[in-house]
Specification:
Helix content is 39%, strand content 19%. The protein has 370 residues and is an alpha/beta fold. The strands form two sheets. A six-stranded mixed β-sheet has the order 1-4-3-2-5-6. A six-stranded mixed β-sheet has the order 9-8-7-10-12-11, with helices on both faces. Helix 9 packs across helix 13.
């Protein structure tokens, strides 16, 4: 069944950081947990006007999908690492007395033949109920989270969510929408990601696709190639081959009026490198716009650094250095297909989409005037 668009959707969230805990006279707390192929991440937040105010967060690299490409199964070690992380999440949920939550698992659990056993283990050992969501739902939530970053000048929009095990792409046509309503219109095309003409004044989904290649799965496919530059080139070309079924792939796009919004650790890391940040700063990265040439220069620098240099680069870090080149290969393939002067960096994604969808359905976010 196609996912339903939340009732009351329309307000555009801007997640902001906070530290306050729940009190009886404040709005209820909501939680969103994203268990991916590589990471386990959670946000706890409350509605704050038209915004989402984060009160606690958790992120840990668990490598749930380690070895999945070869065996088709989640390994005992990876499941145990993940359960340990989920125990911490359970503690935080109990500490903040969160009652409204959505806890989802994505590509690794979609593909693993023992995923149901793992879900049962998580329920038994932590009390948490994980939901394995379809690629369409994952793409829908990524679109929701990125709506505030849509430019009034954008006529063709590509939202890209590069995950650990898969990459979701959603192409939206905004030419029939008034400029001042284009960000708002993104919220109205998410129901089922139905393709086709939405009529005058509305946005329409041209096409969407979930490519079963993310930073971890793509890296695993080429781990036996020793040459750094050669492996990168192979990964980029292989990913591009998987775009053949994506309808807009065959269409040439002018840079004017075209915007890509990228939501992933790869895109935010490239942005931090472009800015030359010594320490990651979300306020400088989220919403930053880069063009294809700037991104290509960063990727060229990554290749020049080599594995040891990337490992010691503070903008990449030891946890991400093993995945940054596969993510960069995906990003380069996209930019080779659709060069742009407006790639917007989104330090937001599935968790924010989950939070917004819950709050919107409950009607606790204020509507932003058109």
């Amino acid at each position: 069944m196609a996912p339903k668009r939340p009732l009351g959707a329309g307000a555009l969230p801007k997640p902001v950081e906070g530290t306050a805990s729940s009190t009886p006279d404040r709005p209820p707390l909501y939680a969103a947990l994203d268990l991916g192929t590589n990471s386990c991440r959670m946000l706890i937040a409350r509605p704050d006007g038209e915004q989402i105010k984060v009160v606690d967060s958790f992120s840990k690299t668990v490598q749930l999908g380690a070895g999945l490409e070869a065996s088709g199964r989640l390994s005992r070690a990876s499941m145990q690492r993940t359960v340990q992380a989920l125990r911490i999440c359970k503690h935080k949920l109990k500490q903040h007395r969160v009652r409204k939550m959505r806890l989802v698992a994505t590509e690794a659990c979609r593909r693993a033949i023992n995923a149901r056993e793992f879900i049962a283990q998580v329920r038994r050992e932590t009390g948490l109920e994980l939901e394995i969501i379809a690629p369409e739902e994952e793409a829908r939530l990524a679109v929701i989270s990125c709506a505030p970053l849509v430019s009034k000048k954008t006529e063709q929009l590509l939202v890209v969510d590069i995950g650990g095990g898969s990459t979701e792409l959603v192409w939206i046509d905004l030419r029939r929408v008034k400029k001042k309503h284009r960000a708002q219109a993104i919220m109205q095309v998410t129901e089922g990601l139905r393709r086709g003409d939405a009529g005058d004044g509305n946005a329409s989904v041209v096409d969407w696709i979930s490519v079963p290649l993310g930073v971890a799965t793509l890296r695993d496919q080429f781990h036996d190639v020793e040459d750094d530059a050669g492996r990168f080139a192979l990964m980029s070309c292989f990913f591009e081959e998987n775009l053949a079924d994506f309808a807009p792939y065959a269409e040439e796009q002018a840079r004017e009026g075209f915007q890509i919004i990228g939501t992933s650790g790869t895109v935010t890391t490239v942005a931090a490198s472009h800015l030359g940040l010594k320490r990651y700063d979300r306020s400088k990265v989220d919403g930053l716009r880069m063009d294809s040439d700037q991104i290509h220069r960063v990727i060229h620098d990554y290749l020049a650094l080599g594995p040891v240099g990337r490992r010691n680069d503070p903008r990449i870090g030891r946890d991400r250095q093993a995945l940054i080149m596969s993510g960069a290969a995906i990003l380069q393939a996209l930019l080779r297909s659709w060069p742009t002067d407006r790639l917007s960096v989104a330090d937001r994604g599935l968790r924010e989409g989950l939070l917004y969808a819950q709050m919107s359905a409950d009607g606790v976010l204020e509507e932003r005037p058109g």
